[in-house]
Amino acid sequence: MKTTHALVLGYIFFAVAFFLFYPQAHLVSDEAEYSRTAYFLQEGRVTVDNVTEAYNFNTDGKSYFAQYPVGTALLLYPLIAMDYRAQFLLGFILHSLLFLFAILILKKLKISPYYAFLYLFHPTLIYYSQRLYSDLPSAFFIVAGAYFLFFRSIPFLAGLLLGFSVLIRYTNLIFIAPFVFGYLFYLWKEHRYQWNALIKPIFSLLPGFALFGVFILWFNHKVYGAWHLTGYSFSIQHFSFSFLGVTLHLIVFILALTFFYPFLSFALFRKQYLKELVCFQLSVFLGILFYSFMQYSPSFQEMFSALFFVNLRFLVPLLPFMIILYAAWISRWNLSKLGIAVIVCLAIFSLFVLHLGYESSDRNFRIMTDLHANTEEESFITGFTLSQFFHESFGKRYFLSPNPKYVSGDQDYLEQSKDADYLILTFSADEENKYFNLLQSLLEERNGTLVYNNTYVTESIVPVSAPLRIELYDLS
């Protein structure tokens, strides 16, 4: 079979599987923040003024906003303007384009494009192609920028792409630095260390970084009140660095990376001679080291749970480069028969991963539709950890939880929720409802009547989450 035909057939398999298990809803509040910000962009805003519209947004004491940079929301904006579920096309589009870039880069490196299947069917990348996180958008703009910088020598376009990646996630600046400085260093070296050889490429790269850099500073000043502040500045849960767990995190990441692709981590330490691969390798090192220092990184138990590939999320922007480095190493051996078997197994396993994502999103979609169907438009609802199940695309609802981010204590919460129309109680083995007694007292005080109760489960081979029982009460 011709290479082109095989690549097309493999991609068709992925595309059919993706739409067969098309995601129905976001899973967590992080995704909801991206999605709601994109929705608000239709109205020309990214903030809300009322605490009952905040859901899970951060606050500076005056307004409420998502803690994440606006880049991902900008990408979602044209899709959610069409339909709530249309926004999940973003992951499909970006994953498809990244597959194309993987093929193009492998060809430029004179490596068989068959190895692009290692990207297409990587379980972590498959899983996040269904999600609304910033990881896959980051990967796309970084990979596209690296391609146009190293393989097409179009630094102006590369600067725009890499600059936009910083608007998606500020820490991407750490990962793209080796590309920019490496490209300039090798250019300087090729021109016999003549500094004037760098003038044109530097001024070609600068517009993209300057454009989005100025936009970020303006946006920070406009939304957060100062150019140096971000949405993270107002988070209760701050990411912090620690030297205590760095060795454990390094070991965890290295072991997890080699589970599906044997010796992948060893390929990352192999000496490289091509300038492109040297820069890719340095970027990967910085990425793994950076996240190994973060206390938010997954623990040993989390990483090696049944769904450990989900916990590699932070490395998604770097996985394409890891796979290219891996392909450059294993392509020296004749592994065609084994390679075909591996690709077939990965493709089959991708069905399980996509089905897993679909079932989880379908459960959330059923919860969202039931809650909106059983409550009045613009009604005021109170409960605990339910903000991700409300979205303006389904109808206008006001929501308040006893979260200390929004209330100063039990009495403040009871005062703010005295006009609530509905109250929701949740029961789940995954999360203790620590405000149950408080909510129960409000329910008894208002003589609430049960509207409906239902138990929602995720129908999958691997238990993703415990059954969630929801009881909705009318307080009016």
Describe the protein's architecture and organization.
- The chain has 476 residues and is an alpha/beta fold.
- The protein has two domains: 3-355, no CATH class; 361-474, D-Maltodextrin-Binding Protein, domain 2.
- It contains 19 helices and eight strands.
- The strands form two sheets. The protein has a five-stranded mixed beta sheet, sandwiched between helices.
- A hairpin with a 4-residue loop joins strand 2 (58-59) and strand 3 (64-65).
- The longest helix has 38 residues, at 336-373.
- The protein is globular, with a radius of gyration of 24 Å.
- The relative contact order is 0.11.
Kindly summarize this structure in a few lines.
The chain has 476 residues and is of the alpha/beta class. The protein has two domains: 3-355, no CATH class; 361-474, D-Maltodextrin-Binding Protein, domain 2 (3-Layer(aba) Sandwich). The chain is 55% helix and 7% strand.
Q: Which helices and strands appear, and what pairs or packs with what?
A:
Elements: H1 3-20, H2 29-41, E1 47-48, H3 51-54, E2 58-59, E3 64-65, H4 71-80, H5 89-108, H6 116-120, H7 123-128, H8 135-151, H9 155-168, H10 172-190, H11 199-224, H12 246-260, H13 264-268, H14 275-292, H15 300-303, H16 319-330, H17 336-373, E4 380-382, E5 398-400, H18 410-416, E6 422-428, H19 436-446, E7 449-456, E8 468-474
Parallel strand pairs: 4-5, 4-6
Antiparallel strand pairs: 1-3, 2-3, 6-8, 7-8
